Amino acid sequence: MDYVKPVDVAKSMVETGGRKLALSTRDLLIRGILSGAILGVATSLAFNGAFTTGQPLVGAIIFPVGLIMIVLLGLELVTGSFALVPLPFLRGEASGGAVVANWGWVFLGNLIGSVAYGALIAIALTDMGAIEPAGVAARLVAAAEAKTTGYAAFGFAGLVTVFVKAMLCNWMVCLAVVLAMSTTSTLGKIATAWMPVFVFFAQGFEHSVVNMFIIPTGMMLGAKVTVADWWLWNQIPVTLGNIVGGFVCTGLALYLTHKPRRSAAPVFVPAAAQVPAE
Asked: Whole-prediction pTM value?
């Protein structure tokens, strides 16, 4: 059996957080860029599946391939880091500055990769602007507007809604990352990571890195969205919601209940007090 017990999963969570903090800026950026692009590929594929079949649930079934590839390749997705990277800090093994710096570099890498893939798919979908957005391209335009000006229309209630959707999203995404640690087999990791990601995508929750792809790509395709709309009504509140959902609902909660115990310090017995074996 390849099942890993929860207490050992918690230990792996702490160790994984430590390894992420030990990565160089170069590695964080490279792995972050790849993750952003891969998640963009999975998102455009999910949109295509939903459009061609007329069934949105098909897109949710397809989308988890992105996170699965990221997990199997050991890449960096900032939403997963929201749950894991603070754990060494809680144990006094890392500084708060190191945690924030890690998040910042991975966030930047994810953003670069997402926007770069968005530019490429925008060219592919419109023959470099020669044809009007239709099909998947039109769906991306509509999604970009719904995720920004759609929330703005409701004012403060819109901000609260997008924040809560982001919390719920990253609770599920981080569960996927952690569940993949509960098995040592490739098939097991695929199955365990797929389940929570399907749940988040099927219900239309808000993921900061997915939105790094959808919103700027929609803008490139003609969505009536400004950069201020993107960041004020989605990217900033979604990122904050992802932090709360990922850290509080997954990282912190599982750490507190399955916290790996520190090994007890060896008891020193003076040689003179030792009893010789008979």
From this structure: 0.92
3-class state of residue 3 by DSSP? strand
DSSP 8-state class, residue 180:
G
Cβ atoms of 25 and 38 within 8 Å: the answer is no
* Diameter over CA atoms, the chain: 93
Task: Measure the CA–CA gap between 107 and 95, rounded to whole angstroms.
Answer: 19
Give dist(CA 165, CA 168) in Å, integer. Answer: 5
CA separation for the pair 35, 25 (Å, rounded): 15
Phi/psi of residue 3, each to 5°?
-70, 135
E strand or H helix at 219, and its extent? Answer: helix 208-220
Tens digits of pLDDT across the chain (278 residues): 589 999 999 999 999 999 999 999 999 999 999 999 999 999 999 999 999 999 999 999 999 999 999 999 999 999 999 999 999 999 999 999 999 999 999 999 999 999 999 999 999 999 999 999 999 999 999 999 999 999 999 999 999 999 999 999 999 999 999 999 999 999 999 999 999 999 999 999 999 999 999 999 999 999 999 999 999 999 999 999 999 999 999 999 999 999 877 654 444 444 444 444 43
Q: Are 185 and 2 spatial neighbours (Cβ–Cβ below 8 Å)?
A: yes
Q: Which residue has the tokens 């389940």?
A: 195
- The contacts of residue 272 (CB under 8 Å, 6+ apart) are none
Give the number of residues written for the chain: 278
Are 107 and 28 spatial neighbours (Cβ–Cβ below 8 Å)? no
